[in-house]
Amino acid sequence: MEEEKKQSEVTFGEYKGSPTITLPTTADGRYPFSFGVVKAKAILKYIEDIKKFVEMNDKSSQKQA
């Protein structure tokens, strides 16, 4: 269980001398999502639009008829 916890944490790293952040996309830590400062700034700038996008398209949160 401790191994699973470690794999699902946010980590900071570096790619070609530039800082990166890696986010887990699943509980088991598979398929991580990494990006740098420029993309992080874009995410912060458009966070409300991203939230709307998820609300409109996240099938796991939509009610089935």
Structural summary, described in words:
By secondary structure, the chain is of the alpha+beta class. The protein has one domain. It is 40% helix and 23% strand. The protein contains three helices and three strands, in the order H-E-E-E-H-H. The chain has a three-stranded antiparallel beta sheet with strand order 1-2-3.
Shape: flat
The helix/strand series, from N terminus to C terminus, equals HEEEHH
The largest sheet is: 3 strands, antiparallel
Termini Cα gap: 37 Å
Strand percent estimate:
15-25%
- What is the typical, i.e. mean, pLDDT? 87
Class based on secondary structure composition and strand pairing:
alpha+beta
Number of strands: 3
Runs with pLDDT <50, length 5+?
none
Tally the helices: what do you get?
3
Helical content, roughly? Answer: 40-55%
Any idea what the radius of gyration is?
A: 15 Å
